[in-house]
Here is the input.
Amino acid sequence: MKNLIIAPSVLGCNHGDLSQASSELQNAGADWIHLDVMDGVFVPVLTFGAGVASAICSSVSIPVDAHLMVDRPADLIEDFAKAGCTYITIHPESSEKHIHRVLGRIKELGCKAGLALNPATSPEILKWVAPLVDLVLVMTVNPGYGGQKHILGMHEKVTVIRRILDKAGCEDTLISIDGGVDSSNASKLVNAGASVLVSGSYITSSFDQAVAIDTLRSFE
Here is the structure.
């Protein structure tokens, strides 16, 4: 098992000072910062744009993953690349008709490309884009809101995705999990094949964020 990556989401932090919140998460032991970028179209909620991402990237020295829950990701990827994000993750369920092209463009911009799959989305799409993907983000809730209940049925999907990636020769591609991740399910997700755990309120609402992060990686 490669080193487990803990990526706190700042969605539930004080949006008036996300730079400070991100810096504190890094100091608490976070490996990445996860940005839930929502446009109010692909999902009902509107969060923040590339300007906020730039401020966060400038405040930390760890990778930042911009998870674009937006209807037109191709319009935004250059701005988030310029902001300094290490990973840019898009959804095939958006209105974007040329996912292959957008993934390639993310890599041309010097970023790592991620593909996020909603709970009802088949992992079969990965057979056709696997060489372009550095990260597969498995949604274990329906995107749009924090604090939702974790969907246990997605654990099997993680195993299927790992098998598809390995068969395609993409053993180094990371599988990230986003949605209701906490100490009650982290070990099962890791055993299923997850290498990145995105966790929001479990970490950010904790009395001691460092302890929460250490708890998630305790079975690494």
The domain at 5-216 is CATH 3.20.20.70 (TIM Barrel). The chain is about 35% helix and 20% strand. The chain has a mean pLDDT of 94.
